[in-house]
Amino acid sequence: MPDVVFDxxxxxxxxxSGSMAILxxxxxxxxxxxxxxxxxxxxxxxxxxxxxxEIQTAxxxxxxxxxxxxxxxxxxxxxxxxxxxxLGEASGIAIAAGRRMMxxxxxxxxxxxxxxxxxLLTGTVGILIGAVRRGVIQASEADRILRLMIKNGFxxxxxxxxxLE
Length: 165
Hints:
globular, Rossmann fold, 10% strand, single chain, 9 helices, alpha/beta, 5-stranded parallel beta sheet
């Protein structure tokens, strides 16, 4: 599986549902987020979403890594994408495109732009389904987590993963 760079929504869904460990097991180790996304997470923590601190814990332990735009191609694509996307999504797509990584996002506009750049995609529901298929969690646990995510504000396209198996 390729390395994965996350946007705020997907990462927040797992943090707010207390299921960050599932991401680590699903990805097989390290996962990434951008410096711009980190600022969004800090803003969320400061506004009272204490469960987002799980992201900081994963960062300090080392299995979640913060990455920055490096190449002129990544920077140019980032600048282009900021015309229609937030900084977190734009930087994630730019890095994923430049380094052949997968991009995890639930944002429709971001997913469309990522597809235009040939970036592999996944999202919250895709990760939960993948975790069930890889034996990381049972389907009933995935549904329980999905319900928690919905309760915390995730607009899910499905209410249960059982129909997708």
